[in-house]
Design brief:
This protein is of the alpha/beta class. It is built from 13 helices and 8 strands. It has an 8-stranded parallel sheet with strand order 2-1-3-8-7-4-5-6, with helices on both faces. The longest helix is centred in the N-terminal third of the chain and has 20 residues.
Length: 368
């Protein structure tokens, strides 16, 4: 089956606010770039449905979902809801689509899970990947945990051996904790150590159902590729999962303002290549990423990888126009390098393996 792409126009012009890291256009830019490259087959593009309240409360509490809906309707938050559910607090602002946008992300990931149960194959949902969301509260810019809801959809359909891999710069704490001690779901997270949410230590195995690879500041493509070869793929071989979900946050890329890792998008694409055929079902999500050029180029290129398409050496004019139209008010946006406009693939960023990476791989934890 050819890969499917799930998106939505709700992400276009939707913003958390002008000073928030998620003020930037991400999903809409990735989709525009895919179209401009000629990589969008209308027959394989699906509009994401919005998850219903009944679907959301498969994981989230009814009280929390009701609080999100009240916040969207009034564009304010009651102090009790803010204190209990962290809406309007901790970097989780009230914004215009505070319920509809995360519900749409969840609907897309749940649809991807259902489609792969029925047909197998590959689905890309760049709007998914909000991996910090908790059952009863917002966390880390995430209001709904679409990854958890997608994994639960697989479980509800009868799957019993699922692998979740997360390469976001921030530990996938919400997903790991949701499946702590759940024998049917194994979670793997490769992230920057000593960074928010300050979880995901190498010794944290979540009751035997998780493996964490916290990388040191400045970790390069070489570190990610070593973890892939000697950490992730042995887990795949041991588990032989029925389905793999990959959260492909782009904030581990060097130019991202919210991490201190040093990778290129080539590292992300290498993980996609390695995992996309490693199980009968594969769902690729977006996630973090706070430099609009880095995110759009990474996720559009990942869609190309899924389809066996290599990025051109020089982008065609329509694709270049998409990237030149972006603005970014952080320091990196004041004088962006020319290759952010004209290419999809970063130059590889390789280096000697960090001592922390070597230590992680020299002492592998067993996988049941």
């Amino acid at each position: 089956m050819p890969p499917l792409l799930i998106g939505s126009e709700i992400y276009r012009r939707s913003t958390y606010g002008p000073k928030h890291p998620l003020a930037i256009p991400r999903v809409s830019t990735a989709l525009d770039l895919i179209r401009a490259l000629g990589w969008m087959d209308p027959a394989r593009y699906l509009d994401s449905p919005m998850a219903s309240v009944e679907e959301l409360i498969r994981f989230h509490t009814p009280e929390y979902v009701a609080a999100l809906r009240r916040a969207e309707a009034s564009q304010t938050v009651d102090p009790a809801d803010r204190d209990r559910h962290r809406i309007g607090a901790d970097g989780n602002p009230v914004y215009r689509e505070i319920f509809r946008r995360p519900a749409t992300s969840a609907g897309g990931v749940m649809l991807a899970a259902r489609l792969t149960v029925a047909r197998g194959g590959i689905v890309h949902v760049p709007g998914g990947g909000t991996h910090h969301g908790r059952a009863d509260r917002a966390s880390g810019f995430c209001y709904v945990n679409d990854a958890v809801l997608g994994l639960l959809s697989w479980l509800d359909a009868g799957l019993t051996n699922i692998l979740y891999v997360d390469i976001d710069a921030h530990h996938g704490d919400g997903v790991q904790d949701a499946f702590h001690d759940e024998a049917r779901v194994f979670t793997v997270s490769v992230h920057e150590g000593r960074r928010w949410p300050f979880t995901g230590a190498a010794a944290d195995v979540a009751g035997g159902q998780a493996r964490n690879f916290p990388l040191a500041e400045g970790a390069s493509d070489s570190d990610m590729l070593a973890v892939l070869e000697h950490g992730i793929l042995p887990i795949v071989d041991a588990l032989r999962p029925q389905a793999i979900m990959l959260q492909c946050g782009a904030d581990a890329i060097l130019e991202d303002p919210l991490s201190r890792l040093g990778m290129s998008n080539q590292a992300h694409w290498a993980v996609v290549r390695a995992l996309m055929r490693a199980a009968p079902r594969f769902v690729l999500l977006g996630g973090g990423g706070y430099n609009p050029w880095s995110v759009a180029r990474c996720w559009a290129g990942a869609w190309g990888i899924l389809n066996g398409l290599e990025p051109p050496d020089r982008l065609p004019e329509p694709a270049e126009a998409v990237l030149r139209a972006l603005t970014f008010h952080r320091a990196a946006g004041r004088n962006p390098p020319e290759h952010w406009f004209t290419t999809l693939a970063d130059a590889p960023r390789q280096g000697p393996l960090q001592e922390e990476t070597l230590a992680l791989l020299q002492n592998p934890l067993p996988v049941a």
